[in-house]
Every structure is written in structure tokens, then in C-alpha cells.
Task: structure prediction
Amino acid sequence: MGIGEIIGYFVIGIVVGPLARLLVPGKDPMSVVMTVVAGAIGALLGGLVFAQWITPDNDGVPWIASVLGAILVVLVLRMMRRSRTA
Result:
């Protein structure tokens, strides 16, 4: 994995972050910057873990894995935020 792929996953994260927030129901006061960060982290996690380790040869899997990773990050951030306020 080179720096170009990491930058590519970050760019994918800019698109995937808002998509993940739309797919996860419920009210979420997350800022635009946090949405992009969640998308970038999710894209990296999804792209690296799912696409590289589980199915490295499938086309389109990095996008799907990036969306799933971003959804996971959004859910974890919500859980962390709820535990702080409770």
C-alpha cells in the first residue's frame, strides 16, 4: 500500500462520510469536518481491512467496504458521544 492509495481512500472518504451519515438513521449533530474525518477513517478501515485482506481481487469492493467502514465509524462515534452525556 502506497501513499497514493492512502490519499485515494481519503478522497473516497470525503464522499463516503456524508453517505454513511445518510444511511445511519437518527439525529446526529456531527459537524461537516467530523463527517469527513469519519468517512476518511471508515474508508481507510474498510478499504484496507475488507478489500485488501478478505477480497483483494474484486472490483468495486473498496467502495462498498469504505461505506461499511464509515457506517461503523459513525456508529462508534455516536456510542461514544452518548456514553459521555449519560
